[in-house]
Amino acid sequence: MSDAAATGASARRRWWTLAVLALVAFIATVDRQAFVVLLVPIQKQLQVGDAAMGFLMGSAFALAQAAFSLPMGRLVDRTNRRNLLALALAAWSLATALGGLASTFAALVVARLVVGAAEAAQTPATASLVGDLFDANRRGAAFTFCSVGMGLGVSFGAYAGGKLSDLYGWNAALFAVGAPGLVVALMLYLTVPEPRRAGALDTRPAVALSQMLRACLAIRTLPPFVVAFAALQGAVFAWFVWFPVLLMRVHGLSAAQMGSIFGTVVLCGVASALWIGPVSDVFARRGARRRVQFLVAIAALSAPLMLASALAPSLQAATWCAIGFTLIAGGHHPVAMATYASLSPPRVRGSVAAVVYLVVTLAGGAGAPFVFGLVNDALSARYAEQTVRYTLLLAPVLLAVAAVFFRIAARTVDDDTAAAERPEPGRIQLL
């Protein structure tokens, strides 16, 4: 099935939509990473421990995102996706900006809860839109384009957050990185057309979460794939939260210095996404299993570099190891998104993406940073500023788990991908 037949949209509109989706991903990760970079100055002002900051940076955001992911997924399958995403973008940008007015820990938690709830619309909406705009053999490249936006957002967020914090304080930094999203939301609403869906619009009554989960479990590849994806995301997300802290505590950098170095590290990771996604598409033409095997390699090869970035004795060595890690691991997201987008029929792609994201967010985004913060607090009396170095050793263990379960998922992914193009009665229809 050609792109034109699948979407009824011109190539120009298709690529413009993809460019705006990449810009939305950029805004989302700028907001997210700038907040992470501000961890140390926020912690100093509010006088709270690492576990509390782990909750603020990861769990508060991720729990709200998880709670709203399924309702957002259902809305994606039932409503105008362009309008939903524009409204969500405006909401999380406003909440980020208003977070700059917060003077207490509780107020910041509320702001992060709102950001997480609104950002729950981004992944299912993007998966659904890209799934309708591009056929299976081009989705890796399309999701790569969005992931480049994410990578650039992380890099810019780290750099801008650090600079603005040093110059004007963390409150002003949050306001500055949140406000531009309101402009992008308006641009999305005014310039992006809602594409024609590849499948019929789902207008049936909502079903219970248990039914959704049973339908997803019927796709044999999804359970091991989700475990692997959650472990990989947990390792990467925890590293992105706590490695900047390591640069400041262990290597003595200021927020601006850390932002410059970490922004450069993440920018190098964008190069990974630029080639891994399109190359995975080439291999996927020989079967979806090849794409999942890419994820096995990413998890296995990035683990030793993640380990070395934590234990490196010098700033220079830590930086080079971190660059190596992001060059490999930075490409995992478009490959994973292309995989699970191809495992579900078009008309319920948003719901399946939401179920996947629910589990991945709870285990990876909410759990990992908070657990790492608890370990930091437990070991701080013994290791002082060096504690974060040893806590980060938990991350390569998660990568090993991810490699094992991706390998299991690869065994059935070809059959399940083929079945998604010809859904069997009663299989995913529960959604």
Describe the structure.
The structure is a single chain. The chain is mainly α and 431 residues long. The protein is built from 20 helices and no strands. It has one domain (3-421): Up-down Bundle (Growth Hormone, Chain: A), CATH 1.20.1250. The protein is globular and about 60 Å long. Helix content is 81%, strand content 0%. It has helices at 3-7, 11-37, 39-46, 50-78, 81-99, 105-119, 122-133, 139-168, 170-178, 180-191, 209-217, 222-249, 255-284, 288-311, 315-329, 332-341, 349-383, 387-391, 394-410, 413-421.
Question: Any chance you could write out the topology, listing elements then pairs?
Answer:
Elements: H1 3-7, H2 11-37, H3 39-46, H4 50-78, H5 81-99, H6 105-119, H7 122-133, H8 139-168, H9 170-178, H10 180-191, H11 209-217, H12 222-249, H13 255-284, H14 288-311, H15 315-329, H16 332-341, H17 349-383, H18 387-391, H19 394-410, H20 413-421
Structural class by SSE content:
mainly alpha
Largest sheet: none
Task: Indicate the mean pLDDT.
Answer: 83
> What is CATH's topology name?
Growth Hormone, Chain: A
Name of the top-level CATH class: Mainly Alpha
Q: Which sequence of SSEs, written as H and E, runs from N to C?
A: HHHHHHHHHHHHHHHHHHHH
**Mind telling me which CATH architecture this is?**
Up-down Bundle
How many runs of DSSP E, i.e. beta strands?
0
Distance between the termini: 24 Å
